[in-house]
Specification:
The structure is a homodimer.
Chain A lengths: L1 H7 L5 E8 L9 E2 L3 H9 L5 H10 L4 H8 L6 E5 L4 E2 L6 E6 H5 L2 H25 L4 E3 L7 H13 L4 E2 L2 H7 L9 H6 L3 H12 L4 E3 L5 H12 L5 E4 L4 H14 L6 E4 L5 H6 L7 E4 L1 H4 L9 E9 L5 E3 L14 E8 L2 E9 L10 E2 L1 E6 L2 E2 L5 H16 L18 E2 L2
Enzyme class (chains A, B): ligase
GO molecular function (chains A, B): glycosyltransferase activity; nicotinate phosphoribosyltransferase activity
Catalytic activity (chains A, B): 5-phospho-alpha-D-ribose 1-diphosphate + nicotinate + ATP + H2O = nicotinate beta-D-ribonucleotide + ADP + phosphate + diphosphate
């Protein structure tokens, strides 16, 4: 596309691309935007190096003028959109990219990859957080997704309200609080379960979390309290019928005087399993497989569509696909959230070339990158922290129906004007 | 775990870890191992740099002896397992890692992340290839998964029989054949669809693939053939009721004399949608969202379990978790595929410390890494090509029932002896 557009002179037509989702998967009530900070940084660093250019040339993928153009590529356009951590609904204009056609179309794959992956995890995470109520959730899914996606998933889950991650690189890179667990292999490595527990207590102190389901849970809990005393931090249960096992372990811990020892459970938990444990004496959850897989929806369904572009004379014109099922809505868009007594009622989307104002509504679309320079508030460790805070604030705006786990309509309607 | 095991002296106990899946998700008949080549290379490069060590020290994650041990870390153990592209079944010992406990347990997350992600895509891809019969399939899912996972997914799909990818980095990095498409935005950029088609034909020649569903499909096909003539390579359809639209377009192309112009379809295709188009005059498919999401199962479900380790006196002892639901099977394992007239009948798993032989059976477990050195046949571009060839050979061993898309039992039983 870039090659052909450079040749026929349309490559530099001013263009506006929009990221949006046609629907929320699985009858979900809202989605959570994540990945924005990673994306702004990635756009800033997006270049074609010698190795890439040599390969494109050798393979004949594009012609010489395009190779030269790619060698100088650096995005110099504008990006506006939803803050990271913000909620979105069907047709929410989550991100708007404005620049020359070639410069903006080249970013499509990068933009969609980052936002689709991270928002899928954040959306699933938010539902689990909602189901867990006041109980903390730890992200433990690094082993169930691509090694790089694992780091991003831990970041996205934290933005959506998780308390910690087992992914140390997410701690180092993004400032996400980290935690660790012992695996069954650590118990099996030792001659006895008691040896394993003692080694862990010696290394980590009595406040550690002991894994009690390698052999017999009741025996393991007895051993754990005998070795660590009532100061034992927690026990982890990773198998069995959790409501039954958890209740029995709680009673046993209390009988042994370990009334402040917590119980943490893991085992392919999703938002429904977490909700199903609400009445059980669980103190914290670890979620992995289902979380990093977006709880059945591993991609957010965002698309990147041209919604406006310049004519030959430079005047801007809204454009949209017209064929069946996938019709889009043209024009540059800005979103506002209408609120009544602090509760969201409508996602109002306004089509306008200039930034509009809407009295009494919360402005959802904000500047993210201007002339190729990212707004620093949204990137790096500070950006992640801001996203987490923003998410916590806006999720409180949801109407009561909006946090239901069951399939249904979006929490609020989108008004496209 | 490493910190505690270094402190109590168990860290260096010789240990054998095994990667296996307890079941195949969704009643699938077989799984496809992928990621092996990427993994061997990643193990070879797995180090703790100054930045990582400084962070671990500052955060107090581990103590000084562990920091020193990590600074010198380099895996020097052995890895055996299934070749990349091989089929696997429940309890197949897909990978076996042997080394000191600490040196081998440290690789758990890396090993599972790579194999779980890539095998999920390869398994879904193999089912789509099987459903597509002789028609070629292109991987187009880069926008629906994490930006790095996208490259690995293209690689995994090619190993499992896809013909090409739209991911240029997968072409550059792994030698996967690449292809491109025009998006709706390219048509919308131009003043008319005719302008867009002409620009593309000028750049790519008449053999290009024109996207015909931005406005009216019938008009677009007429325009496409008028501009490109009967040499028009292909038209792509990305929306609508595909069987109906495809039939109409085929008839129209034939009426216009473009009898050799091919029809390619894309639009959230999975193995079932592809099978449903078997009777339609489709020439090739593009699969994206569903492919990179593992067609509903984004992770392969592999776990990494300690199956054998040394006692204090150095003698090896099989170990296994004993509690409910997740009981494992101890001991070092080797797999053989029993065949009758070239068709697989049984996955025979033999527990043995030394490499056994089994007359008349195909040896599935092969050496992959010895004393920390990867076998070159399995890594890099050559490894990918070998994996694709191996997959094509072994998928032909499946019994007829084994390629059914419907849920059911594994294609062959696993005999754990």
């Amino acid at each position: 596309m870039v090659d052909a557009a450079l040749a026929d002179g349309t490559a530099h037509r001013r263009s506006v691309f929009e990221v949006f989702a046609r629907r929320l998967p699985g009858g979900r009530r809202y989605g959570v935007v994540a990945g924005t900070g990673r994306l702004l940084d990635a756009i800033d660093r997006f270049r074609f190096g010698d190795a890439e250019l040599a390969w494109l040339e050798a393979e004949g993928v594009v012609r010489r003028p395009t190779l030269d153009w790619l060698a100088d590529y650096r995005f110099a356009g504008d990006v506006t959109g939803y803050r990271e951590g913000e909620l979105y609904f069907p047709s929410s204009p989550v991100l708007t990219v404005e620049g020359g056609f070639a410069e903006a179309v080249l970013l499509e794959t990068l933009i969609l990859s980052v936002l689709n992956a991270d928002s899928a995890v954040a959306t699933a995470a938010a539902r689990m957080v909602s189901a867990a109520g006041d109980r903390p959730l730890a992200e433990m899914g690094g082993r169930r997704t691509h090694e790089r996606a694992a780091v991003s998933a831990a970041r996205a889950a934290w933005i959506a309200g998780f308390s910690a991650t087992s992914n140390l690189e997410a701690g180092r890179r993004w400032g996400v609080p980290t935690m660790g667990t012992a695996a069954h292999s650590f118990t099996l490595l030792h001659d006895t379960e008691e040896d394993a527990f003692q080694a862990q207590i010696d290394a980590m102190g009595a406040g550690t979390t002991l894994l009690v389901d390698t052999y017999d849970v009741t025996e393991a809990v007895e051993t754990a309290v005998r070795l660590a005393g009532a100061e034992l931090g927690a026990v982890r249960i990773d198998s069995g019928d959790l409501p039954t096992v958890v209740s029995a372990v709680r009673q046993q811990l209390d009988r042994l005087g370990a009334t402040s020892t917590r119980i943490t459970v893991t085992n392919d938990l999703d938002e429904y399993a977490i909700a199903g444990l609400a009445a059980s004496p669980v103190d914290s959850y670890g979620a992995g497989t289902r979380l990093v897989g977006g709880s059945g929806h591993p991609t957010a369904g965002f698309v990147y569509k041209l919604v406006e572009r310049a004519d030959e004379d430079g005047s801007m014109r809204p454009v949209a696909k017209r064929s069946a099922q996938k019709a889009g809505s043209g024009g540059r868009k800005w979103a506002f959230r209408l609120l009544a007594d602090g509760i969201a009622t409508t996602e109002r989307v306004v089509v306008s070339d200039a930034e509009p104002t809407l009295a009494g509504a919360r402005q959802v679309t904000v500047p993210l990158m201007t002339a190729g320079l990212a707004d620093h508030a949204h990137v790096g460790v500070a950006g992640v922290r801001a996203a987490r805070e923003h998410h916590a604030a806006v999720v409180r705006e949801l109407p009561q129906e909006g946090t239901r786990l069951s399939p249904g309509d979006p929490a609020i309607p989108t008004d496209l004007g």
